[in-house]
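Lay summary. Proteins are chains of building blocks that fold into shapes, and those shapes determine what they do. In this project we predict the shape from the chain. Here is one chain we studied, written as its sequence of building blocks.
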Amino acid sequence: MDFYFQISSLVRNRGGILHMDGARLFNAAVRLGIPAESIVKHVDSVTFCFSKGLGCPVGSILVGSKSFIQRLLLYFSNKRTRGYVSSNRTC
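And here is the predicted shape, written in a compact code that computers can read:
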């Protein structure tokens, strides 16, 4: 996981944020024998699809800090949500 730390440090030192597409996050965690949290702890946000590897019929999730999610909600507040299943939640 040192690679993720190095990339994260480089991105943050340049004022950026780091996103991970977690399409196979849980598969990787099982294969590596480590918690998924260990894989994503150096990124600012991660998305994963429930239907890939988990067998759910539909659904994706975006996870990040509360301030990150709130900024996205403000940005997308004037966008039309498409599809028959959509929701957002901040904790």
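What the prediction tells us: Helices lie at 2-13, 25-32, 36-40, 66-76.
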